[in-house]
Amino acid sequence: MKEFPPDIEDFANRFAELQEKRHKADYDPSFSLTRHDVITVIDAADAAITKLKNANIKHQRAFAVWTVMQFRPD
């Protein structure tokens, strides 16, 4: 990943972790979470979103552009 400030990188890493858990929850019948686990995941997502929102707007925009460009066909 291009280098971004720590708050942006933390958001990106947390997003990937949480997306993986979401996929497991949706498609893996053996995957389960306790209520405590779910609350922890929600708190982690909330903290990552807050960090992203508090990041400098120019870094937010650069991250948004970088994210879109990663999936753009050549």
Report the β-strand fraction as a percent range: under 5%
State the helicity in percent bands: over 70%
Q: Count up the domains.
A: 1
Count every beta strand, where a strand is a DSSP E run of 2 or more residues: 0
Taking pLDDT < 50 over at least 5 consecutive residues as the criterion, the unreliable ranges are none
Q: Mean pLDDT across all residues, rounded?
A: 91
Secondary-structure class: mainly alpha
| Backbone CA Rg | 15 Å
Order of helices and strands: HHH
Descriptive overview:
The chain has 74 residues and is mostly helical. It is flat. It has helices spanning 6-27, 35-54, 57-70. The model has no long low-confidence stretch (mean pLDDT 91). α1 runs antiparallel to α2. The protein is built from three helices and no strands. The chain has one domain (6-69).
Task: Supply database-style keywords.
74 residues, mainly alpha, flat
